[in-house]
Design a protein that fits this description.
two-stranded antiparallel ribbon, single chain, disordered C terminus, mainly alpha
Length: 368
């Protein structure tokens, strides 16, 4: 309650320059320092589910736009957020097969607040132009997605081909005999906690996709360039791999990987696709008419995945249906698909799902 009250007082004083100079700025400095000590204590005790943590993260997000210079003097803060950004509660200790503290689960709200603050901190950091820092951090997120996919997708031979020069780096040799694992890369995410196990790998992908979504949605203080080609490259890679079914097996398997790991990949892949659709929705929402050049390609990939996974129970079918419907209501005006949709297999799938969920909001007719 004290955190909320102090944050409110700091925000109320903003219109008054004298109060800001004499009272707010010195007080905010002490407040941020104390709260960072609290986050540091949470990290040392690995108790990321502490009820006050959400209040601290939200307070920082609200104060940061008004006091970027104060937060600039605490360069440790982004590093303290890393264990919360893309948690992997399924990460296991290879020696004891027990869940490690580093992989402790966090609530969705905590993760989202940490991701939003992490994104907002980079333009306010020292030494470089804000847009450059933001772009470098986004590049690190995308590279971590690729590196994680290199490991998590090692059970299959991917058909995806890079369009931006970043080819797949498939693991080989003795590493294939070990349990799949990975760690953070890049200057801003090098200390991202290590994950172990295919379920933890898919959890890391979902978390990083949530962070990518926040990079797209979080406002910045100045103009930035959104690298659509690089972003769509990783999203299309994750959408290119689909869960095989009894009637359709079009995935080339890596015979060196155990069946248990492949089954774990099929179990987690629909959840990854839900996170991809969420990131696509963020792009469509933010870019609006600027999405036109890639609208047809996006709709093709999302339709492809939706048709093949619409009945799977691994991830919530309703979640996929909602995301697909919301995205495509915005995408359809920019494509030529409305003229052919009523006779397509996709239309039949959407009709079946609309009856299944009994919600007129997501009825396929509304997509036209």
């Amino acid at each position: 309650m004290c955190i909320v009250l102090l944050t409110r007082i700091f925000l109320i004083t903003q219109p008054y320059a004298t109060l800001v100079r004499t009272i707010t700025t010195p007080a905010v400095t002490s407040f941020v320092k104390t709260c960072i000590t609290f986050i540091d204590a949470c990290e040392s005790g690995l108790q990321y589910t502490h009820p006050c943590l959400n209040d601290v993260l939200e307070s920082f997000s609200r104060l940061l736009p008004n006091h970027p210079g104060i937060f600039r003097s605490f360069p440790r803060l982004p590093g303290l957020l890393l264990p919360i950004l893309a948690p992997t509660p399924s990460t296991s200790d290879a020696s004891s097969n027990a869940v490690t503290s580093r992989g402790q689960s966090q609530s969705t709200d905590t993760v989202t607040l940490a991701q939003t603050l992490f994104v907002a901190l980079h333009p306010s950091g020292p030494a470089k132009i804000p847009a450059v820092r933001w772009s470098e951090a986004l590049a690190d997120v995308i590279e971590n997605l690729h590196v994680t996919a290199d490991q998590a997708f090692r059970a299959v031979v991917e058909d995806w081909e890079a369009t931006t020069g970043r080819a797949r780096r498939a693991p080989s040799g003795d590493s294939l005999a070990e349990e799949v694992s990975g760690a953070g890369v890049g200057s801003s995410m090098a200390t991202l906690p290590r994950w172990t196990g295919i379920q933890a790998g898919t959890e890391r992908l979902v978390g990083l996709l949530g962070l990518l979504k926040q990079f797209i949605l979080t406002p910045t203080s100045g103009p930035i360039t959104l690298p659509m080609g690089v972003i769509w490259d990783i999203l299309s890679r994750l959408l290119s791999l689909r869960v095989p079914s009894s009637s359709r097996i079009d995935v080339r398997l890596n015979s060196q990987i155990s069946r248990a790991e492949r089954d774990g990949l099929w179990l987690g892949l629909p959840c990854v696709h839900v996170a991809v659709l969420d990131a696509v929705g963020a792009m469509v929402t933010m870019l609006k008419h600027s999405i036109v050049p890639v609208a047809q390609v996006i709709l093709k990939h999302t339709s492809w995945v939706f048709q093949t996974e619409s009945t799977h129970t691994y991830a919530s079918p309703l979640a996929r249906f909602q995301l697909y419907s919301t995205n495509n209501q915005q995408l359809f005006p920019y494509t030529n698909l409305p003229h052919t949709l009523p006779t397509s297999p996709l239309h039949r799938v959407l009709t079946q799902q609309s009856y299944r969920f009994r919600s007129r909001r997501y009825h396929p007719v509304l997509l036209l």
